[in-house]
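Reopening this ticket.

The earlier resolution said the output was attached, but the attachment link was broken on my side. Pasting everything inline this time so it's all in one place.
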Amino acid sequence: MAGKEKKYMDKEQNHLNPERTMRYAVFSIRNSLENGISYRRSFIVLKNGYGMIVRFTRLEDYAGIYSGRTYKPLQADPEPKLHFICGMLNYVIVEHGRRLGVKHVFDITKPMLEEYFNSYAMTEKPDGGYHKESTVETCIAVVTAFMANLSRKFGGFMKVKREELYVEKTIRLHTGKLEVRHIPDFQATGIFEESDGPFRDMPSRVMEILIPMAKKYAPDIAFGIALQAFAGMRAGEVCNVRQECSQYGPGLRFVEIGGQVRRIEIDLTREYKLRSDTKDTGNIKKHRKQGVYPDFINVFMEMYEFHKKYLKSVDFEDEYAPMFVNANGLAMSYETYRRKFKALINDHLRPWLINSTDPEFRLYGQMLYENNLGTHAMRHWFTVQLVLRGEDIANIQFWRGDKSPDSAFHYLQNKGDLVRELKITADRLITALIDIGGEMDDE
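Inline output:
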């Protein structure tokens, strides 16, 4: 049996040379209107073994974004969904098409989708670990909707029917209200891992060190960290901020009363073209005017004044007036911002903590060797501050700029833990100190 399997594999590998090997992939391109408003378009394409696009498929039309609606925003883009769809298409058609007898998306059946969902849930990721429950559920929802949309369009050509993809269930919302929904009729089996998710805890004491350290070692992104920590913005949104002199209108607006700044708004209502080479800088997840939380206005203004002085020392494209600039004078991209943040943590904050005489700092530095602290830690720290200050679900959703109250509800569900946020990391440090026989002085 093994010999036959190897012979089959060898035959298949010889058949699939790079020029003839085809895989589904996502291709995105950013465009802009004459007034500078930027938008992105994503497509499902076929690429050969050399990574060259061979064909545009139009399958992205069935991803379900604003389907059945009479209006679709220009900025609407299905790119996140397309990666899930391509994963299924590659598994069923490209990798297992011969075994399953599938040559076309019309040939896919419900059992094949079930097989893929279980494979997705059970397959270890390249960087270790397994897909978390919410990611698997999103994959199932997106792929099921994709197949249902195809079935609605092509009817009898499809082997899978819309009716067999969904089951009607009554669910209770977090508000207590009952609602009837059509749920994908699949259940994938995955591997549960005891995990708190990405490492993002940062004690306020460490934040007080990080901010001035950023001014010294990463002046180009120091204000970006302030936007995340004091206005709760995502890293991609930070890279969309414009200067006050922008031709598209000021990126920040201030309200002064009695000579004091009382309110600050960051304009995230649209994505604009911010680079002459038209390259993407980052995405705005929810278009809005984002406010700076009142308790942080003073420190925010200090960081903003610092950044304005920094901008006077660098070149940038006056036509676009981006708030953050890379080494070439172009608007900074999300990837560049992320790399610079990572370098700040790994090259400066972590060594400083490790060399500190304070045992808490030293052990938190050790934790940073064991865990990657990403840009999202700033937004998490911001949300924790909102909870500590007694904000309710509606206000947390507002200040975070979320589309739904789910994240705010999640934080408040764990409020009993979050009110101890300033001690959470300290508790772990104390445990570690006990394990190594150390002591901590009472303050």
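Reporter confirms the inline version is readable. Strands lie at 23-32, 38-47, 53-56, 166-172, 178-184, 252-257, 260-268, 288-291. Residues 133-154 form the longest helix (22 residues).
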